[in-house]
Amino acid sequence: MKKLKYFDGCELEYMITLGLWNKTSRRYTSEYWSINKAWNKLRDDKKLFFLPKMISKILIAKYTKLVVYFKYFDDFIEENVSVHSCQSKKSYAKARKNFLVPFTNIFNYAVSPKNRLPEYKNISCYDTKIADFFKKYAEELDITSCFYCESAYTGVYSDKGEVKRTFDIDHFFQKEQYPIFALSLYNFVPCCQVCNSRVKGSGNFKNLYNLGSRITNKDIYFLLRISPASPYYQFYENTKIGIYPALSESNKIWQYNDDLDMYKIQFDCDKNDPYQKVIDAFQLDGRYNSISIKAHAKYLENLKKKYTDEYILEIATFLTKAGWMTTEKQIKEVIFHLDERYILLKKMHKDLLM
What we know:
Elements: H1 10-18, E1 21-22, E2 27-28, H2 30-45, H3 56-59, H4 63-80, H5 89-99, H6 101-107, H7 127-136, E3 156-159, E4 162-165, E5 168-171, E6 188-191, H8 193-200, H9 205-208, H10 217-226, H11 235-238, E7 240-245, E8 263-268, H12 274-281, H13 284-287, H14 291-306, H15 309-321, H16 328-336, H17 346-353
Antiparallel strand pairs: 1-2, 3-4, 5-6, 7-8
């Protein structure tokens, strides 16, 4: 739910970590040119002239540019692997997978050289290097909780001198379906295992967000807003999380009591808003109504009732008279932990307390 914030120079550091840019000579490495040569041959063979010749322009392309490439590449696949020419969805999936084999051999970060096609044997495996980049810059990228759900801590820790990570690195545009983005920096979203493997998984990307078989301009508008890597991502601004009395099945009325089953957490946004599809895709309504999250929401609600604006004003007045010159805003930040960086459920926290 939170937005990814990139630091200045992250693209260059990413290329250096992958071993594709030499920091000393300030030039691309021989490994880069080896990949670029393979890419250009494939690009020419497939007549992919809408994609750049320099592979770096795909690897470190900003998210907005990736969306444009995504539409072109998806159209290209649909034109070359027609569902109408296949007898079933299974045969279509197989035909699509076979069609993407050369792309997977160039871009798939987890394929070792020995398992690639002969013409791609000199391309390295990059999964460890990608993980190293996100581990090294976890602080700068604010990798503290899952960027999709905010309900699980993420970060790094040290074990016997080795830095390890407690997060997955999701491919927003799934690498199985769109392998040309498997190494793209702005296609990565650090997240928890539940969001990555159990909820999102490796299923059909278009089905996940209820997109049509062909990407339209309306879909482009949607895609530009739903990735945490997008500069137009505004989940915080366009949604609000609230806790409400649940509807009793017996008498069909809204009621409060001390039983957590009588409450529900709800994401409020316009049903036509792009973020409703994000809420549905990651099953946030259901996941946020677990006992533990509802209990925390009730704690926040009670905290808000205890420290009313009038009470906080009294505290501020008292402290000011005592010479502390404390503002109401500062007191709220201390009591409600509003400035706490390492807090889970930050969106819910702010919505329920402000």
